[in-house]
């Protein structure tokens, strides 16, 4: 298995994890055949479980707010591997892991664990060349991406409040897939503390100190319009994901004055309020000017260049996570029902977005996030039978 960041093998990891668990962690998972008196109760304060089944996969709009820890694993399927049976098996494993009945959890309570699975353009094209998700992500400026870190057949996104769950769940799912897949790259990341925005909404800060993910399809109507795929039936209930791993030039950004940093974003650093005024949850007034005719939100500010109205596209649900390996930076994930929402936005930013001069993309991929599933309708069955 090729591992871009030289991760230990699954066997090595499981051996090491087992030793750690034996040394200091309380075990007690419940498998389908385990006796009830052997199940360890979840510790007090464990987050509420998130259902893995339903019309949509978990890990996109549920839970809310999103868990603080994420691990994304990108892999390829072997040339002769049929995706349908593999995805069905992964779906069964996801249900067992999130329910806490898989012994490969090693006694860890799943809490708010979610696993979200997507398939890349090559697999989508095999199912139907005109389906949403069949198009590859184009190349953009400010990229330094190795071949193994561009594209991929399979995305496994694992999120949880407990960071210890992430490698354990990844090991279980990779064990389930066996030699049918080959890992391309993986990235662990975390989100900062949530900041109240008003109206019951929150958003975290990014590594540059600014509140991130304020704008998006938050209402049910907005999500039906811009997030979820409505058809064709094979993909209805799914969505399209874009992953971009970016290095950030933190020292150069930190050298700017606070006013200069705010001009880059178009928002106040402390509060998230647009430079045009209002509240943090308000959209910027792009036409607002000073008495001498200058735009309150600079022409090259990020909130202007990435604004859906200015670009002429729908809203994207954005999740940004901080990374420290392989370099300090950001793992950007967006969900939308039209890939052009992302590509047109980044093209508009490429022209003159002050924020991009502090970023370098080092990994990039897009995936069709499969529709939701349950016991009667296995993961991937609408697309691959």
Explain the layout of strands and helices.
Layout: H1 10-24, E1 69-77, H2 83-99, E2 114-119, H3 121-127, E3 154-160, H4 165-177, E4 181-190, E5 194-198, E6 201-204, H5 220-226, E7 239-248, H6 250-254, H7 258-265, H8 302-305, H9 308-311, E8 317-323, E9 329-336, H10 339-352, E10 359-369, H11 381-384
Antiparallel strand pairs: 1-3, 1-4, 2-3, 2-10, 5-6, 7-9, 7-10, 8-9
Summarize the structure.
25% of the residues lie in helices and 20% in strands. The protein is built from eleven helices and ten strands. It has an eight-stranded antiparallel sheet. Strands 5-6 form a two-stranded antiparallel sheet.
Give structural notes.
The structure is a single chain. With 385 residues, the protein is α+β, with helices and mostly antiparallel strands. Helices cover 25% and strands 20% of the residues. The chain has eleven helices and ten strands. The chain has helices spanning 10-24, 83-99, 121-127, 165-177, 220-226, 250-254, 258-265, 302-305, 308-311, 339-352, 381-384; strands at residues 69-77, 114-119, 154-160, 181-190, 194-198, 201-204, 239-248, 317-323, 329-336, 359-369. It has an eight-stranded antiparallel beta sheet with strand order 4-1-3-2-10-7-9-8. A hairpin with a 2-residue loop joins strand 5 (194-198) and strand 6. Helix 2 (83-99) runs antiparallel to helix 4 (165-177). The radius of gyration is 21 Å and the shape is globular. The two termini are 28 Å apart.
